[in-house]
Design a protein that fits this description.
This protein is mainly β. 4% of the residues lie in helices and 55% in strands. The chain has 1 helix and 9 strands. The longest helix is centred in the N-terminal third of the chain and has 5 residues. About 10% of the residues have low confidence.
Length: 133
């Protein structure tokens, strides 16, 4: 795979805050852009990043026209109020975050999940993921 912008691919993740969160996380979500260390980045044009959430885990894919979906990340997560903790268990590229729990604050704006936090690398992130209908 060519080197392409995948929001800090396997380092930055997405997600949410709800009273009863798990059922609302389940399903497919598409990356719609974010802010990284104060710099806004739009969504991708030549391909899409998509996450599929189950009750406690996720699998992330790169979707490009004319190609099969390519798995680039997987892991498990836990929700507690507006706190979201994610542990990456697989990444297609070398990652310093594999098997490390990373915490975020999450919220929901209509059908968009907003993830905000600071990675262990010091990078400030805010990402937007839209539910795939």
């Amino acid at each position: 795979m060519n080197k392409i912008f995948v929001p800090a691919l396997c380092s930055v993740l997405a997600v949410f805050a709800f009273v009863n969160p798990s059922p609302q996380l389940k399903g497919k979500w598409r990356f719609a852009g974010g802010v990284y260390n104060g710099k806004a980045e739009g969504g991708t044009e030549d391909y899409q990043l998509q996450r599929v959430y189950t009750d406690k885990g996720f699998t992330a894919y790169i979707l490009a026209s004319g190609s099969k979906p390519e798995k680039y990340q997987a892991g498990k997560y836990a929700l507690s109020g507006s706190n979201y903790t994610e542990t990456e268990t697989y990444c297609m590229q070398p990652s310093k975050l594999t098997n490390k729990a990373v915490q975020y604050q999450i919220s929901k704006r209509k059908d968009t999940l907003v993830l905000k936090g600071k990675l262990p690398t010091g990078m400030q992130v805010e990402e937007y993921w839209v539910r795939v209908k």
